[in-house]
Structure formats: structure tokens, C-alpha cells
């Protein structure tokens, strides 16, 4: 059978592999059933759905004809680096690195860092728009996680709040 869309074929295989890994990992927890769900129920179902979606996409890539075979291009290393880097920066800013002496900067600073670094991945960078987006995300995250869900984690830098 000939692959008619390389992008969809590879994406489908990736979804299937990740779905199977999540479903398999969820079996280490108590799964329960639909009426009494255990901690492994949601990741198991999500993994199964992701694997099924991946199988459907892979099958479609083998059956549906696409223009020029929908070839896979080169990897976009710059955006990939900035997106992964922004997530790593978020984790470091949120909780700090005690072993290296980096203090926790809290949720607000971490969201600003994440937003500004991730925005560098695009073709255009408009600081004013990114600042507005970061402010909206910071306020929304504060309201959702700290006010409504009452989660306990640093909101402001530890050297300010003590």
C-alpha cells in the first residue's frame, strides 16, 4: 500500500504511539469503572482515544489521495527551540532551582516569561501585543488557579513575599 500523505501518516503514527504509551502508563494506577473512576481512568480513556484517532489518521493517509504526496518538509528548529525553551523557562521561574540557588519567581513572572519567549517563535514580534496577551493570561491564570481552585503555589517572587 502506498503512502499518499507523508505528513498525515507520520502524525498518525505519532498519535498512536503516544496514545498507547499513555494508556499503558495509566494501567499502573487504579482504573475503576465509569461509575467509580480511579486515578488511571481518565489517562487510560484519553490514551485509547488518542491511539484510535492516530489509527484513523494513519489509515486516511494511506487511502485519501493528496496533491504531491503531502511531503514532510524540514523541521522548523527556531520555533521548536523557542516553544520548548519557553516551557522550560516557565517551570524554572515558577518553582526555581534550589540546587543552583535560583529562587522561585512565581506564577505571574513565569507567565510573562513563557509568553515573551514563546512569541519569539513566530515571524513577527510585537512587544505591545505580547505584553497585553501576557497580562490577560496572568490575570486569568491567577483567577482560575489561585482564586477559584485555591491551589497553593507561589504567585509572586519569593524574595518579595518572603
Automatic annotation (TrEMBL):
Keywords of this entry: Membrane, Transmembrane, Transmembrane helix
Transmembrane segments: 41-64, 76-96, 102-121, 130-149
InterPro entries membership: DUF1468
Top-level lineage group: Bacteria
Keyword RNA-binding: no
Domain DUF1468: 10-154
Pfam families: TctB
Protein name as annotated: Tripartite tricarboxylate transporter TctB family protein
Protein species of origin: Ramlibacter pinisoli
